[in-house]
Amino acid sequence: xxxxxxxxxxxxxxxxxxxxxxxxxxxxxxxxxxxxxxxxxxxxxxxxxxxxxxxxxxxxxxxxxxxxxxxxxxxxxxxxxxxxxxxxxxxxxxxxxxxxxxxxxxxxxxxxxxxxxxxxxxxxxxxxxxxxxxxxxxxxxxxxxxxxxxxxxxxxxxxxxxxxxxxxxxxxxxxxxxxxxxxxxxxxxxxxxxxxxxxxxxxxxxxxxxxxxxxxxxxxxxxxxxxxxxxxxxxxxxxxxxxxxxxxxxxxxxxxxxxxxxxxxxxxxxxxxxxxxxxxxxxxxxxxxxxxxxxxxxxxxxxxxxxxxxxxxxxxxxxxxxxxxxxxxxxxxxxxxxxxxxxxxxxxxxxxxxxxxxxxxxxxxxxxxxxxxxxxxxxxxxxxxxxxxxxxxxxxxxxxxxxxxxxxxxxxxxxxxxxxxxxxxxxxxxxxxxxxxxxxxxxxxxxxxxxxxxxxxxxxxxxxxxxxxxxxxxxxxxxxxxxxxxxxx
Length: 489
Ligand code: NAD
What we know:
Belongs to the aldehyde dehydrogenase family. GO terms for molecular function: aminomuconate-semialdehyde dehydrogenase activity. The active site is at residue 257. It is an enzyme of class 1 (oxidoreductase). This protein is 38% helix and 23% strand. By secondary structure, it is α/β, with parallel strands linked by helices. The chain has two domains: 2-258 and 464-488, Aldehyde Dehydrogenase, Chain A, domain 1 (3-Layer(aba) Sandwich); 262-454, Aldehyde Dehydrogenase, Chain A, domain 2 (3-Layer(aba) Sandwich), CATH 3.40.309.10. Helix 2 (66-82) runs antiparallel to helix 4 (99-123), helix 2 (66-82) packs across helix 6 and helix 3 crosses helix 4 (99-123). The relative contact order is 0.13. Bound molecules: nicotinamide-adenine-dinucleotide (NAD). Nicotinamide-adenine-dinucleotide binds at residues 154-158, 163, 181, 183-184, 213-215, 219-220, 223, 234-236, 239, 242-243, 257-260, 291, 393, 395, 421, 461, 466.
């Protein structure tokens, strides 16, 4: 099947669209139709992109002021808003996510990402110390932030534009030039963003896009390029490890936002209606394909049955369907390959003794959608803590529901993972809420909510979930290198 709007997506290098060494097909996860033919960058295109970025950093862009860069970011935000529906259509074509979600979350957040980092960079001062030594010498120490230089940005497919602009905005705010490698599953919005950034007046070479895959393709070519100055990556933990090995010989800084196996803890005193609604969001948003999604729910025994019943009802109420259908709550997985992985976990969970409370397979949505990557929202009971389905990231609309008896036990179970990205605690006892949230060995811990973000706050994970934090001034620290100047007075 060929979509009438299928297009050819090129690489964007030094301000111009360029072809690659081969092309690959991007198919819709909704029905398998062809969305785009994508030009795959080879060593020559990746090298040219890095060189163009270097020229930008060494040229006028490298001498730009904070005010000029903040103004550029605001113009980019305005241009995304002006072409809002184009971005929505591109994101939906690649991912199959509901139109409403693309509007309210993905593209809306892209706009906010640029405005927020324009504000942050404008308001951030320098670290300075008036130094007074015992022998009477005095000095002024101040640290001047310099751009990192050429930043490689490698991003995944789940929230493509949101996660890309989360990195592009602060990188440009700090005066870097970037080479972006979007996921092979979601090449469209990164390409459209190139047009918008150029329209907003960014000099050639400031924003470059190279398309392709990971190993042996544009991803690896970019992250192992000797002339990049740092890598910021969002994706799987195993990919982060591979990228780390690739940059090790060059001793480059990395910022990693990786996988998760996130827990939620529901205490018996929680507002159960709110908890069930919140868990419904945290398990099933984006078909479970958000790094922050909950895949383990620990429920205090007295309310276990009630919470389980509420969640099963919630899952049954989800509507799978075409993105443009107003009634649709839940899209497909990103690809039939990813669905095969999720299906393997569905089978593993059953082998490990799971009782399937709802879902558990591939739905029949009719011939029209038979070529898509659809999967049923699934809840498991009866799994033990050592089960693979409880320990490994599935990245689909699934969760294991498990009872607990004491606060200490709940904290221990939630922290019994090699990941450490996000947690959510549901309780009316705020003292306990603070206490338990602080004991979670994660980067982000929510109380009575989930995925409520202040872009100035630190975002990232511990353990297998990542290295470093981005967000607000945390991002500015990654995308700059301070030079400390000491002047004797
Ligand atoms: P992935 O790691 O397979 O791919 C991510 C990107 O890395 C893609 O662009 C891919 O082409 C590229 N890549 C793959 N191998 C590479 C290599 N060897 N060298 C260089 N680049 C390479 O991840 P995915 O399947 O696209 O995304 C899902 C994963 O992302 C999940 O694990 C999810 O938890 C994680 N994620 C984390 C966050 C976070 O903020 N912590 C946010 C979203 C997604």
